[in-house]
Protein 1
Amino acid sequence: MNSTPTLLNRILIAVLGLKLLAVGVLLILLATVPAVASWWHSWSAGAWAGANQAFSATRFPGRSESWLWILVALVLLVLIGLMVAWIAQQGKGRANLLALEYDPGEVPGDVRIGGGVAEQALKHALANRPDLAGATVATYDVKGTPALKIRLLPRQGVAPHLLADEVQALVAALEAVVGKRIPVLIHIGAGARTRFRRAERVR
Amino acid sequence: MSRHQEDQSPDMGRILYRETHSTRAAVATAAAVLVIVVAAYGLLEAGVHAIGQPAWLIEPQVAAERLIALPAGITPLLLGAIGAVLAMFGLVFFLNGVLPGRRARHLLAGGRDAGRPAVVVDDEVVASSLARRARLAANVTPEQVMVVVSKRQVVVNVRPTSGVRVEHDAVLDAVEGELAAMALDPSPVVQVNVAPSGVIGA
């Protein structure tokens, strides 16, 4: 529901994984297959000669250092910046406003309803239910439209469809108060789940 | 600031896809941190070299020469082990990027039509609800029922109390009735196993 760039994540992770895999397989082959070792000697010696030539051709006049090192440092800085930007994209997308409308009435100005209205109202309505171990409500910004995510943690054995129906009634009441249809996602979950488990076991 | 908010609901199918599939945020962060650490070390060595200072850990010239001579200068076992570890990390990242990454969740069909909220349920919640129904239908204690919910299959294992028959069809009917009321998407098939041996004193 948040705006984590899932496709970008997949592509970048797959590319990095492929590169690590290639390097690892090359190292294993170098250690085991002599033919690969001789190919590696000829190839890498050629590549190193080319790099050496580039470095010696780009020396500072009158000094032994190459300005190519500064270029390398700049490229690495840009790479680090891109990686930080990538991390910053994860889990973004929380919003503050539930509704933002121009008021056509006589009083000039806009009407704004904060996401806290829905969050507090629904949390309060769900707080004292005996069949719930917990409930959280959050407002997200989904492509410019505010949407609500209601996460319910029912106790064991609660029928999820009946719970969902009752929460839908609460959402309908909230929509009547706010005066606007709100896209809502209800997630009925289990707490302290372990990851990487396909089948769920419950006594 | 008098921007009109269009009264269009966002693409609910997209939201539901994102809720039932992993975002790989943790793996992505780990990958980014890995790249940052390697790039920071490279940046340090490049910067040190650019201003003509001695290298911090290893001179790039020496490192490159060692890389070229690679099968020599290191035991094959260590080289192979390093390669295997790198390849394993690479495989983990690659599979994380390529596999579908479904979460153990189902949709409740009520959320499909527009206007009503979309509902996503963890398989664990479905399993505990079905276990309760199966337990009531079989008239056994909670310890004697185990339900496993996967994408397209629900397996109900019942161990009867010794001396008391458990009606296989009654349990199946109860579980299927509960599943029909839930209207899960994708809809799983129910399989009920009644254990041949009973539990004493339950």
Note: Residues 26 and 144 of chain B are 38 Å apart (CA to CA).
Protein 2
Amino acid sequence: MAEPVQVERVAAFDRASASRRWRNLAGSLITQESVITLGASLVVAVAVLLPLATLIVSSFRVLDFLGFDTHWGLDNYRTLVSDRIIRKAFLNTLFISTGSMLLATVLGVALAWINARTNCPGRERLEPFNLVPFFLSPFVGAIAWHNLAAPRTGLLNAWARDLFGVRGHLLNVDNLFGVIWVTGIFFTPLVYLFVVGSLRRMDPSLEDSARTTGAGIVRTTLTVTLPLVTPGILSGAIIVFVTSAGEFGVPFKLGVPYGWETLTTQIFSKAVGDDANHYMGATMSMTLGVITAFFVWIQQRIIAPRAFTTVTGKGFRPNVVDLGGWKWVALAFNLAFVLVAVVLPIFCLFVVSLHPVWEGGIIPADLTFWNYQKVLFFWRPDAIHSATNGIYNSFILAFTGATLAMALALVVSYMIHRTKGAGARILDFLCVVPIGFPGIVIAMGVLVTYIKTPIYATLWILLLGYITRFFPYGQRNVSAVMMAVSEELDQSSRMAGASWLTTLRRITIPLLKPGIFAGWVLLFIIFLRELSISIILYTSGTETLSVGVYYLANFENEPLTAALSIAQTVVLLLCVVVFRRVAGREALTA
Amino acid sequence: MEAGSPAPRHLEVRGLVKSFGPERAVDDISFGVPRGKFLTLLGPSGCGKTTTLMCIAGLHRLDAGEIRVGGVAYTSVADRIFLAPERRDIGMVFQSYAIWPHMTVAENVAYPLEIRKVARAEIHDRVADVLRLVGLLEMAGKLATQLSGGQQQRAALARAIVYRPKLLLFDEPLSNLDLKLREQMRVELKRIQREVGITSVYVTHDQAEALVMSDEIIVMSDGRIQQTGDPHDIYARPANRYVSNFIGVANLLPGRVVRVTAPGRGEIEVQEGAARVRLPCRLGEGVGEGAPAVLSVRPENVQALREDRGEPRLEGLVLQTIFLGNCLDCRVRWGAFEWKILAHPRYLLRAGERVFLRLDPEHSLAVRP
């Protein structure tokens, strides 16, 4: 096709002048899509990297003896190694994380297996209850278990004394084992979700072929089923380990008052306590963050990808194991979990909240709703004010935060899945980074970064902390749906003449609605109960709901604390109902 | 291709280059489509045909080259012009149909008109017209998810033509349909395209589809154009071994042109194992005396006879015959080569028989290797 005629035609195309060419280039590069996606990428990069970078830099700033001057040096790291309290806190954290990891893994794997693969009666009905602790505040769980099993005022101990004549106390959760107990049962759903998905998606022929070779049910389960879900189990275990290490509320309630410090409670005291030293706090945060990020990296890059090599994504009907008479044992086990993780804590908090004062026993004549009126509706210039204030602030934060985070998540997911190249890969990585760091570490980074800016002491700094730490959860919800929606659906809208924004509004967003809404509700729930970021970043006037609970727990009595805890729990449970309506159970595993 | 003044080209692609990483998906290709014509880009997956289409649509940016529609530059790397896809006024039918599942069929088809701010009443009429054209009028109120594959296909076509675009692009639109429906839709698509008269570019890996539908076919491989021509040309006069092998079935024997007897005619010597023969044949473009070439003969142009008719002698052994009703599919061993032959069913050849093959020099073509 090299006709001379054609060559002339090409030569006849008038070439644009140089200046026109640059204008053409600018016009073709500056589009709605490029401006918005680049803008969002920049926001994500700054939000994620700046606090971490500042944290690293700050950890090398040394505060001098009087607290006035600073210089560069490694003193903070020297203190970290030599300080007895910090060393003990580190060991306690390690002990708690290991303990709750073991507890949650045993409980989570057992519950997942019972629910996914056995004929245990009522398992469909029990599943939602197994997941409830996932949505509730572990801090409130700690408060509840303190009221249940504190040596003197614990309800269970009181019952043991009254009914069985136990002397002294039967149970005591005010120690490291108590911390392990509460974090363990509250993080059991994490393991459960990782494992139950693999169990349900497993190709039944893998087990059938083991059975045909002569292996019994028990043998098949131990030699085929469990090894196949090992990546899921390991993922869950690591996430529990890391989440426990970053947990603040539980050790703060059950450990600190009894002399058991952890890294998070130490960071807290360095951030706002009497011996505040932000640089030391930054150093400890860095240490904690490096450890957790390392484990999350292992989980994300090494373990999670293996989960799909043996377990296909096809929809199989999994084999169901007939437990015979043991199915009642399985049911009892599951009911026991729901009892200790959900029913008892909520019941106990409710009972406590109805008493003017709590002495460990139920006094029917004293029951009153007065505490609710006080914490929910009374504005008084003392600690209760913080509680009421916290309710108001938390709703603002949860609503705005979830909305902004999902908008960001949408654009970021679009970038990751619909554009190719280095930008998408970098962004994909940036979205994993916040998951590697506990909320309290991110919060410490945000604090040292923005303390001298006008956003400090406003709700904005909390919003920034929340979104930075948690928008990846929203992004994963959107991404899951976006991967299932063909890119051609967007492209055909562009071809039909719609601009990028119109396509986003009329095609992309409507198609992603389930994922966007599920992500929104999940973030709303997370933000409504958030404690470890809030506790670092709040100031007088910007308390949140969980900070309110913390206030009441610290400065008021147990019944008031319980009343606000119950109020928070009720709202969270309502959100859970909504969430289960809009999202499949897979939406949580992200 | 003969010289002379070509029809004015509605779509003009020049020097198109597109790389993904170090790999050149499309490597400097140029072609044009006259107004109202139907061009097919044909090739195996990974040959760059879909990438070319995406570049025309504006869904990919180019690394080099120029794309013009109706004389207007849509993309020009030299002039740094890149028109956003929504401003190109191109209709496109995607492989997955891409019918929006949250809208009805009518809403899907009305969408491009709404974007163009066409008046309500007119939208209604035009949607009805185009749905009637594709035979989906009764399905107007159905959701996309309630349609069968073939119906989604028609809806996608309706949506792509309702705004009378300057150009219509098809990205393997029939590949998800079953064979029977595919054959029916080929004819249907072609009829509708002819009726609305929109210049079209069609991408497929299915040679039968290309032969049935196209005014012109471009055979591509490895990001380059192997041959351009109308369906008959491509089939009867493949430019090289690749095209000959890709389109239809051919007996391909490597050899050497030993003599040029007349312009475009000559003799080729082929050797397979112990067997060697000189055969008169036509010479394809770029094949001269002494040049290595490949003899390409379609199975229907080979005769298998029981009696020897003298030189050139191709004596072979029937390995296998399959009776297909209207013809007989035979395999004949000659030296190390196995001939594919479609014989008339009245020659009831049997496996194990010795036969003599006769080739028609008019339909024996020496092509570039």
Note: Residues 179-196 of chain B form the longest helix (18 residues).
Protein 3
Amino acid sequence: MSENTLRNIINDLHSNVTLLHRLLSKIRPLNEKITELVRKFIRKLSDIEHDLNLISELCETYLVRLKKTPYAYKELYTRILYQLQGYKRDTYLISEIYEILLFHTRMCRSKVLSDYIALAGKYVDKIAEEIEVPANYLFFTTLRNCYSSLSIHVTKTHITMLPLADLYNPAKWILLSHEFGHLYFQTHKNDILVKILPFIEEKLRKLWSEFWLEELVSDIVGVSLGGPAYLKMLILETCDYNPVATHDIAHPPLDARAFTQIRYLEHVGAPSELVSRIKEEWKAFRNGIFEESPLQEAFNEELLNAIAQKLTEFIPHPFIVAKWNHINRIISKIPKVKEDIRLVIPAVALAKVRIRPLDIIKAVL
Amino acid sequence: MSKWMLISEAWDLNEIAQKVGEALTALTLLKFIKIEGLNIEVNEADLKRKVVSVETILEALLEEVKYVSKAGLSPTPLVEAIQEEYGYSDLKRIKTKIEDVLKALEHLNKGTYLKRDFEEIERFLEGLANKAASRSSDLIWRAGRY
């Protein structure tokens, strides 16, 4: 019996942590958010270093003394090994954050890219004010290859990502509200599940609670902020030639998603003009599709309607309903007007003519 | 499920795995001196604090059991871990088991060291720890394939 292997593992972890610490420290503090994000994860690394020192002491103080009692030695040895494996996983997870930050800072070397990323970040911060999510979270917006988000509840961080390909297309940024919706779902999950799962057949509850409901709730967050603009951009993003089918395990079919959004707006008492507009956007796309087959029974209209109705209890006063007239008024005036970005993004998404990105930037207060 | 969703869940579970792991190490040392009579010097108060710190995880789990039961939901990975450890699926029995462990932690915190309390806490935490660690590792592995 020798604790040398444990010492080697601890040393290996120490070197992992030291390198990550050094790399994160070198991330350029381009703005306060990056500084805060880096600070959060450096603090996490410092905690790990501290814990590794305690475990080293444990090896030297107790393990060595327990050699004469093999069963106790082995028990403690195994417990220590279990803890070390957890720190190994930590280093992997923090490496992912480093990679996100590294890519972000590289993109920000270009002044133009940096300005657009900052504007997208401003949009996310502003929509965060409209949605009931924990105020003590750090919201960070960055670029990746697709719309996605990463919530790290232990460090109270939510990273929202938009595809590089959409950076110069602010109309599409409305889809960031869906990514923000994931945080909304995660922080309201228990209440939502308790209210909605009774409507769902027992054998399908696992799929609904793990995947589909989170996506539908995120859509409702999106449509509550963008209304028809959200659905219009979702159609562009999904390019779905078969909207009655599920294309991956997580997302319900586009037909089900659109139906729920429209029903939500109807149930929440949105103005008829707003409801008509979202229906028009949907029909304009949907009527062109060759095959008209029904949705599978798991997404029957009665269920989707019940879900939409229940969700009005969670978001009873959507931003889009309050601001619909205002958004309509500014559509034709961009870039001559200066407006809140929460109004400008849906307005440019709904505009009949494409508005130049630079004009959009000019229109934002 | 996106890579980032996998990572998010892995992070949550790893945090639980680590807290439970630290408590189990402390419990083991406390057991050595208080139950098995091994002669090693420890900071008893510090070890007790580390063991009892899992109370918050158990209380959250109790809430989880309540809402799983109320919503008629399939068990979450940690509820499943307890079901697997004890071999029963009845959520009422799972709830009672968590309450038993919380009582055992209370005894330990008061300095009443009973062998059966140590066994109760240890078995429960091991079940939880193994599930949290293995699921977290699995999620990280799956995320790495993206």
Note: Residues 171-321 of chain A form one domain.
